[in-house]
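Risk mitigation, structural track. In case the binding assays with zinc ion fail to produce interpretable data, a predicted complex structure has been prepared as a fallback.
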Amino acid sequence: MRAALIVILIVASIAFGSQAAQSQTGSASAMQHVTLKWLGTAGWEIQIGQTRILIDPFLTRQQAVASEEWKTDEEAVLRVISGGDYIFAGHSHADHIGDIPFIAKRFGAKILGSRTTVNLSLSAGVDKAQLTTISGGEKLDFKDFSVQVIKSQHGILTRDGQKRQPRSAEITRPLSGPIFGKHFVEGGSYLYYFTFGKLSLLHQSTGNFIEENLQGLEPDIAILAENGNYNWTEALKILRPKTVVVHHYDDWRVPLSSGMTAAVRRRAQRLEKDVKALDRNIKVIIPEFLQTITLE
Ligand SMILES: [Zn+2]
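Fallback model:
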């Protein structure tokens, strides 16, 4: 079912660390509102009622070096994240899960992710009771929302002029020592299809789909990961979202406080053009860092 949707851009809180608009909804009507905040990369904070959901939160914004022990920039995380009940992991590369163990330990959040995400979280000392392994096909009900897990595949990357899909390796058991950059393997890529009352929202962590897995979803909002190597047309024809939010278009190795250049924004505008070419009635949002979007 597709619900009527009004997207109000409450505030473009570009100022680093701003918590603006966090409490704009007011307690009486809070249950009707879903608030999304973009954390950069594929990261989102979703507030529904008293529940705070994080998806792929990555605030360290540094490359994981294969041969070096991974360190979360805890200060950078805590400037933006002040709590969390659930953390969903789209896939297990460092720019998606590198900060998840720290956040889970700090706030007691439950993690849902691939076997690789779960094993790396265990390696980092997250309590087993906080971890749920997903493998695609699950339909999970929570107090304020439900979520469907959909098997997907990683986006095709361009490295040194060559297009290639990252190898889909897995971490099959907890590590005996610390996490190094090389351990952040893809581990399978998943879409999350959230239902918040009448609203449906699809989160894509990496710019690719398994198109036959998209039939019948038709989300109100599709949060799509910019990828110039993916042909969006067929997937968008199946999904028919009312609103597309473009993410993972930023340069994730640069601190949020540095903002974005026009060249970086043009990556998102390319996807906007593809969407509009298909159906100009689809609303496209290209968010700024820490921008809050309220859905009702
Ligand atoms: Zn990735």
